């Protein structure tokens, strides 16, 4: 079953001779439980695509469907709620709340949504990511790799339909990067979690089940449409 689908997705900036086609008719499908890496050079459109997939920016035209729902048919408030419940984000910069400890950072999205915390699920994530001894620590007491583990745990906590990872190893050294990628792979398998990751790093991309290549705003390989 396809959990994510884009249909002729376009994002243009400017007009006339100065038009920049950041995305120029992207058709992409991602199956439930799949780990897909989107690879491209700087300026290829991969970050723009990730922002569209996550509903962080609206396209010029085309559709993004998550679990069969056209997310851009939703008004802004409804889209915000849908994004919080259905899409987990892992960014290069971690984005942890400095005054909250590890456990509080992980469960924050669930509490913001007013939902009951599934303690068994949270404990399973914490164990899988090796954070059990750090749950009372503040972010500034953690290494970069540990902070990224917390960010992954937070993204998984609400059981999202999709986890989107934006250059998740960009601020990490090579050994820590491989450790984090190994953990992403494990979480994908253990929780049957659909993951879409963008990266410019070919070695990192090899961890994924499938590599999708993007150049000049167009998919040039691995689209599976």
Report on the structure:
With 225 residues, the chain is α/β, with parallel strands linked by helices. The protein has one domain: P-loop containing nucleotide triphosphate hydrolases (Rossmann fold). 33% of the residues lie in helices and 28% in strands. It is built from 7 helices and 10 strands. It has a 6-stranded mixed β-sheet, sandwiched between helices. It has a 4-stranded antiparallel β-sheet with strand order 2-1-4-5, covered by helices on one side.
Features:
six-stranded mixed sheet; 10 strands; 28% strand; 225 residues; Rossmann fold
Summarize, please.
The protein has helices at residues 46-53, 76-86, 102-112, 119-128, 144-157, 174-190, 202-205, and strands spanning 2-13, 20-31, 35-39, 61-66, 69-70, 87-91, 162-166, 194-199, 210-215, 218-221.
Largest sheet: 6 strands, mixed
Strand content: 25-35%
Count of individual beta strands? 10
| Helix run count | 7
Going by CATH, the architecture would be: 3-Layer(aba) Sandwich
Topology:
Elements: E1 2-13, E2 20-31, E3 35-39, H1 46-53, E4 61-66, E5 69-70, H2 76-86, E6 87-91, H3 102-112, H4 119-128, H5 144-157, E7 162-166, H6 174-190, E8 194-199, H7 202-205, E9 210-215, E10 218-221
Parallel strand pairs: 3-8, 3-9, 6-7, 7-8
Antiparallel strand pairs: 1-2, 1-4, 4-5, 9-10
Helix pairs in contact: 3-5, 4-5, 5-6
């Amino acid at each position: 079953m396809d959990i994510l689908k884009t249909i002729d997705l376009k994002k243009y900036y400017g007009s006339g001779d100065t038009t920049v086609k950041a995305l120029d008719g992207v058709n992409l499908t991602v199956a439930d439980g799949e780990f897909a890496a989107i690879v491209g050079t700087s300026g290829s459109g991969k970050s723009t695509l990730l922002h569209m997939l996550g509903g962080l920016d609206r396209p010029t035209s085309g559709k993004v469907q998550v679990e069969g729902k056209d997310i851009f048919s939703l008004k802004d408030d409804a889209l915000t709620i849908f994004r919080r419940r259905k899409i987990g984000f892992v960014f290069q910069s971690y984005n942890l709340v400095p005054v909250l400890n590890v456990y509080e950072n992980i469960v924050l999205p669930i509490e913001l949504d007013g939902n009951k915390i599934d303690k068994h699920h949270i404990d399973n994530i914490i164990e899988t990511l090796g954070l059990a001894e750090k749950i009372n620590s503040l972010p500034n007491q953690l290494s970069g790799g540990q902070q990224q583990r917390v960010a992954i745990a937070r993204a998984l906590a609400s059981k999202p339909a999709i986890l989107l990872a934006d250059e998740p190893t960009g601020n990490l050294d090579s050994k820590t990067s491989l450790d984090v990628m190994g953990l992403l792979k494990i979480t994908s398998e253990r929780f049957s979690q659909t993951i879409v990751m963008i990266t410019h790093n070919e070695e990192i991309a090899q961890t994924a089940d499938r590599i999708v290549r993007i150049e000049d705003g167009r998919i040039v390989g691995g689209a599976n449409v």
